Structures are given as C-alpha cells and as structure tokens.
C-alpha cells in the first residue's frame, strides 16, 4: 500500500514543496516544486510577511495538485536558524547536607536550564519565559569543589556545579507557520525541526553515539546540529551562508545579485570559463580559477564562522566528522577550508546529497543535490516522529507543551514557569561573623525538597508525562536559621588545664564580642565581631588566674643603689614547669604543672657586704689592762626613705641611698666612751699617757690592738 506525504521546506530564499510516497520499506520522491520568494518575506527562519509566504505556498500546492490531486495536509519544519542556544552554569552549597541523589542532580539541571533561559530573555526586549519552548539540553560537565567530575551521584563536598547547553524555540515561529498554512487552506499534519529533519535521514539513531556535526548551509544562515552519546546535544546557527559568496561576486565584478547567483552556480563545475554580465551590460568570460581567487576570502570567512560555532557548541572540541547539506554546501573548497579550521583530515568533512539517504528512490527528473536533503527529511521525520501538542495541569494551571521529545515533569515545570528554587524549601538564614578580622560564614540548615505528585503519586522531575496528566508541587520545608555560641567558633584546643602550686586551673581564651568581654557560651548574632586572645605564657596565665603575687615573686631581684641598678639573681625566686627551671615568657601547654620556690631576702648587711661597704668601724684595744671594743657607725643605709638596721631585710626593687656618717680616725680619748674606768680618788700629782709603752696624748690616733695606759706620778 502506498501513501502520499506532502512536505514544505520554507526557507529564506525559496520554498520547496515535495511529494513523498511511502512504499512498504522505503520512500520514493514522486515530485518536487521550488519557488523563490518575490519579496523579503522570510528573515532568519521566521515568517515576517504571512501573506506573501501563504501566497507562495498556495502556488506550490496548486502546481502539485495538478498531478497528484487535492492536498489538504502538510508537514513542515521550524527553521533551525530560529533555535536559540544558551550555555549556563549553576552552583549550590552542599556542605553538611546528605549525599547527592539522582533527583538532586535532575533539579540542579533544571535550575541550570532556567538560568540559560533567563540569559536568553535578557537579550530580548519585552521577553517572557512563556514565549520560548525548551527543545532540549545537554550537560557539558559536572564539578565538585571546582574539580570536574564524571557524576555527582552519591558525592559529598562543599559546592556542586553543573553547566548545560540548552536550546529554545520561539513560539512565534510556530504560530506564524500555522497562520501561513491556514491562509493556504492547509492543515499542519506534523511539525519537526529542520536540523532534526536532516539528522533523521542522514544520521540514524545507531550513528548518534558518534560525535558528528551536521551543517545545513542555506542562503542566509548556516544551521548546525551536533550528535554525541546517542542524542542531539546542541543546535546552533551562524548568520553567514551562501549569500555571502554571492555578494562577494557581486561586489567584485559589479554584478546584479541574481546574475551573481547564476555565476556562483557555474563555479560548482570543476573547470571552464565563467560567463558574467556586469551592471554596464558588458559580457565577459573569466577563468574559473580567477573567479575563485576573487571570492576566496569570503569562502575562508564562511568556513571560519561555521568551524568556530561548531567548536563552541562542542565544548571547544572538534567532532569526529562533519556533514554538509544545503545549497551553500556546494561552495568550492569549503570542505577543505573547514578541515583546516577544525584540524580534521580531508576525509572527515563531506557534502552529502539525497543519495546518502537510506531506502530512498526518486523520479529521474529530480536532481541529486544536497539542497533536497532537508525537505525530504521533513517529510520522513514528520511521518516517523511527528511533533504534537500535549495539555497538562501544573498546580491547577493548564499548560500546553510542544512535544519535541519524550516530555518529563522538568519540561512541564519549564513551561509552567515553575522556578527551580521552588523545588526546595528555603535555606535558613546564615550568620556572618568576623573572628579576629577574618570573616566566617555559618550556613543555615538546608531546606527540604518539595514533593512532586504525578496524578497523586510521588515521583521525580525525570518522570515521563503524557497529555492529560496532573502535576502537583507540594512546597518543601524551610531550613532552620543558623545558630552558634562563641565556643562553636573558638577551637576547643585553645583551652588548657594547668596546676599552679598544687591548685588546678582551667585556662580559656579571653573573648570579646563587639569589644565587650564575653564567655564561651554567649550566643552570637549576625554581623557580630568576635576577638579572642590566646593565653600562652606563664606571665599571661598568672595574671589571668589572679596570681600576680607569684608574678612579682618571679621578678629578678634588683635594687637601685644611689641611682644605679644592682642585680642579685641569688635572691630571685625560681619557676619550675614540670620540674624543669623555666622563665615567665615560656609557653605553657595543656597539663603542665607550675611550681615556685621563694628564696630569703637579703639583709642590709648582706647588701653592704656585696657592695664592699663598711657600715661600722670596730677595733679592740687594751685599756688599763681591760679588753675594750670600740664601735662607731661609719655609713647609714636608707631603704625606700627609711634608715634600716644592718639586720633588716631589703625588699625587691628597693631604692637605697648610702649616707657617710663618721670617717674620722680613732683617738685616745674615744676609749673613755666605751670604758667604765674611773679616775682613782687617791690619785694626786701628775700622770703620763702611754700608747704601747710610749708617751702619747689624748688626741693621738690609736689603732686596733693598741695597749693604752694612764700612769700617775
């Protein structure tokens, strides 16, 4: 049994109408009509003048109806050049949250696609998310803590990142197509995308595991689609195509545009002269090679534009192969120039015509040309995989979806403008604290994911949907706000336990919150400023534990004698840490034992001896056969303003002044102050003063050991 398919390829320059017959296991091209636009009714794949396009469609329809009977339904394609591709990435904080599940990944992918949609809308005036269909997306990479990773499944870390490339189709493209067909009394039987149409006939699903690029080079634009890992991963377009070559010929040789187009088509032949007629009416034959050289910069520019877009869409990697279709693919030397841009061997870039389509036959009058790949693909793709609308309900909102692929709940959320953030409860408010001039961020609790119900049954964003389904999104639970006390941000290791002279102490850091003294258990508020000082040395610990007296005890023993310091370490106290001699600036560790030994303070006499100062002058003499000690104070020691006896102790840090009292020599008459001898009552007459048996006098100088006598005569 044979069935007829009517398909239209509505392009920028022309419209192609084709009759395709389906015969059991293959298709047969029965007829084809090509008509060029009389006016500029198409711009970049979108119908700008519905009336003109409808008129041309009607002409093609009537021409084909003369041979094949009434035509009421038609398959068409949305132009690939109307597709918009955006690359976007999204990152989320996953610290202290459960491991990543497939549903988490799906929701994060949806968030990245919506980010791409927002980027697209920012480029358009008065754009709305509902004006675009997402026709597909592909994940370029996953990252965990800035390191690229194969999958986020079951992973844990601080931050997860997903980058996607997403493709969108403006709704107005579809609506204008429907309007033009309606004016031509045609009903849309099926709809596909031009890149998908070409791919379906040239790159079957079994080949899509390969990284291959398909480029449809038309008149105004070059449409690009890339396959990899079993699917179409990206679509793109460059506003450079066959017209650039035609314009280069027109400019160089002063040709009217239609004549330049004719001359360009002559270049498709390998050799021979090219006949041209310039705007002045002069005819001339030019060598093929000369004309080719004149337009070669435009050829390389076209190759560069296509090659660079392929690399951008393919994550800066050259695909395994490139297939070229469309009239512009016949541009001389384009394949070799594209090989240079992509650094591919010559046999990896090729022009493909309808002869490359499997299970296809044609009428002899129909040429074997790459221009017909897309219209034939439209008819076949519309038959095998027609795109239809589906109607679903999302949270009581009726949504219509353009069914370009197997649709999922994620697609429904995109169409219903459900923000990815709505799929999770809000995270709790965080705390931002400054600790010793360093910012610390304490995250709030992660929100719980929203529950998704498909026709009342819990499901995930990856679940497939069908027309008539009802989707309900139940809001997730919000996370708790972050809370913290000082102890949470001050390391426990900063506290230590020590023993001072057998008394245990717990030493904690000095903490200030907003310049006020605080405890480790004080609750923190957002934007608090925390400063803490770690107590590490013996001196700091003694002050912190109110053992200042011990600190004074440890000071080096020093006195100031007549303004000069005198250090006497013999009288300083000793500090022992764990039994070892230490100093007050030594660090103290957790568990250390501190002990102090107090040495006796020196006396005034001890200091005088150290300074070689004589405080008292003592001599022994014999007077009248009696041993007598003569004593007199030579110097006074004034300690902190008071005269102290030689036996008094001198405190640490004392100020000492030495006063000379009596430095005169001893004389004979001094002995009477220390002797109890009395003048005999019976003594009469004269007397003689003797010193060591020799005559002397009362004011004569005497010395220790002298024998002094007074003899009466």
UniProtKB/TrEMBL annotation:
Residues 5-202 form the SHS2 domain. It comes from the Bacteria. Keywords: Cell cycle, Cell division. Gene3D superfamilies: 3.30.1490.300, 3.30.420.40. The keyword Cell cycle applies. GO terms for biological process: cell division. SUPFAM superfamilies: Actin-like ATPase domain. This is Cell division FtsA domain-containing protein.
């Amino acid at each position: 049994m044979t069935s007829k398919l009517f398909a239209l390829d509505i392009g920028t320059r022309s419209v192609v109408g084709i009759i395709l017959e389906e015969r059991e296991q293959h298709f047969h091209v029965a007829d084809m009509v090509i008509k060029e636009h009389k006016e500029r009714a198409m711009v970049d794949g979108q119908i700008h003048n519905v009336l003109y396009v409808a008129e041309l469609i009607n002409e093609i329809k009537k021409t084909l109806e003369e041979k094949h009977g009434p035509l009421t339904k038609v398959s068409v394609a949305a132009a690939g050049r109307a597709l918009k591709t955006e690359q976007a990435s999204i990152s989320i904080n996953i610290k202290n949250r459960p491991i990543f599940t497939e549903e988490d990944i799906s929701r994060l992918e949806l968030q990245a696609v919506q980010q791409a949609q927002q980027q697209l809308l920012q480029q358009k005036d008065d754009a709305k998310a509902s004006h675009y269909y997402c026709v597909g997306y592909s994940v370029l990479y996953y990252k965990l803590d800035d390191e690229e990773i194969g999958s986020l499944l079951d992973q844990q870390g601080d931050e997860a990142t997903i980058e996607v490339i997403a493709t969108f189709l403006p709704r107005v493209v579809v609506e204008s197509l429907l309007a033009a067909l309606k004016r031509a009394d045609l009903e849309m039987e099926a709809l596909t995308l031009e890149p998908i149409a070409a791919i379906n006939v040239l790159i079957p699903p079994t080949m899509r595991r390969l990284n291959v690029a398909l480029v449809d080079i038309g008149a105004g634009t070059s449409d690009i689609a890339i396959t990899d890992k079993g699917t179409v991963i990206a679509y793109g377009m460059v506003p450079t195509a066959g017209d650039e070559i035609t314009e280069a010929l027109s400019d160089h040789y002063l040709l009217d545009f239609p004549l330049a187009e004719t001359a360009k088509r002559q270049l498709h032949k390998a050799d021979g002269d090219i006949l041209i007629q310039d705007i002045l009416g002069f005819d001339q034959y030019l060598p093929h090679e000369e004309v080719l050289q004149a337009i070669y910069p435009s050829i390389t520019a076209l190759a560069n534009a296509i090659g660079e877009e392929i690399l951008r869409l393919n994550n800066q990697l050259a695909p395994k192969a490139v297939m070229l279709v469309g009239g512009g693919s016949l541009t001389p030397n384009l394949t070799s120039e594209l090989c240079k841009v992509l650094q591919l061997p010559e046999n990896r870039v090729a022009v493909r015509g309808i002869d490359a389509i499997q299970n296809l036959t044609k009428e002899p009058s129909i040429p074997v040309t790459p221009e017909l790949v897309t219209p034939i693909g439209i008819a076949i793709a519309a038959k095998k995989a027609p795109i239809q609308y589906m109607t679903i309900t999302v949270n009581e909102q009726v949504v219509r979806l353009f069914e370009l692929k197997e649709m999922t709940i994620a697609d429904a959320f995109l169409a219903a403008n459900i923000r990815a953030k709505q799929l999770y409860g809000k995270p709790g408010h965080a705390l931002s604290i400054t600790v010793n001039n360093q910012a610390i961020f304490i995250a709030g609790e992660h929100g719980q994911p929203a529950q998704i119900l498909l026709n009342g049954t819990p499901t995930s964003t990856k679940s497939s949907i069908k027309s008539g389904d009802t989707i309900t999104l139940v809001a997730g639970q919000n996370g708790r706000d972050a809370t913290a006390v000082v102890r949470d941000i001050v390391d426990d290791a900063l506290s230590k336990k020590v023993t001072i002279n057998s008394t245990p102490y717990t030493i904690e850091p000095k903490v200030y919150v907003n310049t006020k003294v605080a405890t480790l258990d004080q609750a923190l508020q957002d934007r608090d400023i925390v400063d803490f000082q770690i107590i590490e040395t013996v001196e700091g610990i003694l002050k912190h534990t109110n053992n200042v007296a011990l600190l004074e005890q440890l000071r080096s023993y020093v006195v100031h004698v007549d303004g000069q310091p005198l250090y006497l370490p013999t009288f300083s106290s000793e500090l022992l840490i764990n039994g070892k001699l230490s100093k007050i600036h030594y660090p103290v560790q957790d568990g250390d034992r501190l002990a102090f030994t107090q040495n006796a303070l020196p006396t005034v006499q001890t200091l005088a001896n150290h300074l070689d100062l004589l405080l008292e002058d003592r001599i022994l003499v014999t007077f009248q056969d009696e041993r007598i000690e003569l004593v007199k104070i030579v110097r006074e020691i004034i300690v902190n303003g008071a005269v102290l006896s030689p036996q008094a102790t001198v405190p640490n840090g004392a100020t000492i002044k030495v006063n000379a009292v009596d430095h005169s020599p001893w004389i004979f008459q001094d002995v009477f102050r220390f002797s109890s001898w009395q003048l005999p009552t019976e003594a009469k007459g004269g007397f003689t003063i003797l010193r060591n048996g020799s005559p002397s006098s009362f004011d004569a100088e005497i010395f220790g050991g002298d024998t002094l006598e007074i003899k009466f005569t």
